[in-house]
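ok so for the tutorial part 2 we go from a plain amino acid sequence to predicted structure tokens. step 1 is just haveing the sequence, like this:
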Amino acid sequence: MMKIIYIVGSIIMYLGLARVNAQTLPYKNSLLPIDERVNDLLGRMTVDEKVGQLSKILGWEMYEKDGKNVRVSSKLKEAVKQQHIGMLWATLRADPWTQKTLTNGLSPKEAARATNAIQRYMIDSTRLGIPLLLSEEAPHGHMAIGATVFPTAIGQASTWNPVLIQQMASVIARETYAVGGKNGYGPVLDLARDPRWSRTEESYGEDPYLIGQMGRAMVSGFQGEKIGEPDKIIATLKHFVAYGVPEGGHNGGSVSVGERTLMQHYLPPFEKAVKAGAGSVMTAYNSIDGIPCSANQWLLNEILRQQWGFNGFVVSDLLSISGLTGNHGTARDAAHAAAQSMQAGLDVDLSGTGYGVNLLEAVKTGQVDLQALDRAVSRVLYQKFTLGLFDRPYVDEKAVDRQVGTTAHAVLARQVARESIVLLKNEEGMLPLSKSLKRIAVIGPNADNIYNQLGDYTAPQPEEKIKTVLDGVRAAVSKSTVVDYVKGCAIRDTTSTDIDAAVHAATRADAIIVVLGGSSARDFKTSYQATGAATIDANAKTISDMESGEGFDRSTLDLMGNQLQLLQALKATGKPIVLVTIKGRPLNLNWADQHIPAIIDAWYPGQEGGLAIADVLFGDYNPAGRLPISVARSVGQLPVHYNHDKPKHHNYVESEATPLYAFGYGLSYTDFTYSDLQIKVEERDKDFKCSIAFQVKNVGNRDGDEVSQLYIVDEVSSVVTPVKQLKRFERKFIRSGDTETFVFDLTKEDLRLWGIDKKWKVEKGKFKLLVGSSSDDIRLSSEFSLEKDYTL
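step 2 — the prediction. this is what the tokens look like for a chain of 792 residues:
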């Protein structure tokens, strides 16, 4: 008996000593520098464990929900045992692709419970107790049930207000962090220069400077001053690089851009975001000059790391490593594909199938050396330590309700939506409408459809949480106003059209608000690829509204279904009519521009979008949004971005060469005048400073914002440059009758070009300055000269 007691006591003592020893291991000592902790942990890991740290697998099957109980799933345990995984992606995601609904998905509190259970399992039930890094989709709100849904990126860019977007990003980070996510996918920094491309809504438009400012704001909002702050998450920049201009608009297709175009236009937004401290970068699906981005050593090592100083980790897009053998055909087998990506500097495999056994095989056969593997693993571990995952792996489940989906966050979502709305046309001051109209007809497929106004990468949300245009109109008008609603038609389906009912309602109304456009709303009728992109099914028995969003590329930009016929029938009633568009890409508005007196563009305005649109319709908010992307007259014009390279475009036989609405365009309920342009240039040995100042006066009878824009023309240069380039902008509130001074400073960084010798420089000579309210509404112009060249 005594012997048994002695043995049991010895075991208990051994386990206790082992526990104390484990707690004092260097990598678990929070007082040591992170580099020391990384090196210590790396030295304790097997090759299998190292490879596993680089696998980021799909996360929504890693928990099980039974009533209010949430626990880790057998799939997680198996993945940990077999793959030694280091990360999960989209664990809390809910949408038709993941088959997670409001019923079987996770509420915010349940989400926190799930991530805590997952981390507890990793820490308590694995050899080294390495926590997982949980990455979540977060481009316009955390893609999870209960999170706040903001306008999509194209709408965010329409605010031309980086300060507001940084505030928004801080809220997204707080909501993601509260439930256990520590890495948010976003911002998307692709230049969108072909609106046929299905993911235009995810972009900040066509201009590298505007995109760079928005991207930097998002990174700052996500990450704070430094990675590891409470309520902050790592940003992942997407998609590196030139993903947004695929040939023919085909999502993920090849692109045709040269090195100078890359350096001058496509890379600068990423450079700004990297230098703002971004912790992660995602490679694009496409190839550039025959080299896939997921195996491009020049992009990932020379540009990203050596030139820009990036020290985070690079992650593949979903299955893009496997795409080297399939889509691109540059790798002979899966191990060769893993080796190509690893050697190029791609650290993390989003899927768990690109690296894993394939990378182990590549290491075994000498295609990848252990030094390269250790380097990639070190980058991942460093971010985990920096985030505090080893020291603070759990979240406070009791605090979730105070941090996710709050009233304050909804107020901010409404403000972002307000500032994103672009007034395209207001003939004879038709807007704002009177709140005391006797009868208003609200008509159209997007007038009262909650998911059609939320955009892609949105989780299911309770209906009462989303405010549609119909909700907004009813909340805005007087109690005596009758508001009639008729859908009229669908976005695409032509079998359920009832234009007669819409016309009947319109003839009885004093004013018509018709809400048309598009939809990125994923539904359970649509099939999806392994990457999550939607699949076009020409033989589908039911037709969803979805005509935009990942995978839904277009060959035209026309309004689909019977929408134009509905609009024409409503116009024929002779009643005052306002068109509101809710959509993810610029659409053909030629007929509307010619015949409809007032047009508002709201993009996908998020959960508070209906209230924000009503604020503008009835004058509670004076719109000042500006287009971040040009609106073409025809697909035959494409590309039609304002900052195309010289020479200037000439007209077509059938139409003008200019877009219908230009980049930077947007109207207001008041008027502004510009005056007193002042330019001062100070040249120094290594740089110069060009100070520009001018006055803007609100000469209308309403207070409002003005978005003043500064463009530059490099009149003579050794290489071809754009016809004009945005270099500065500012959105300012100006009271009626008041004057505000705008001041912009330029340095050599703003005028640089990629020279014939493949070096950055500013060449001496003459530069034209253009100041105005849009790229085609220039109010002031002047020029200045530099007397010497500058190098960068």
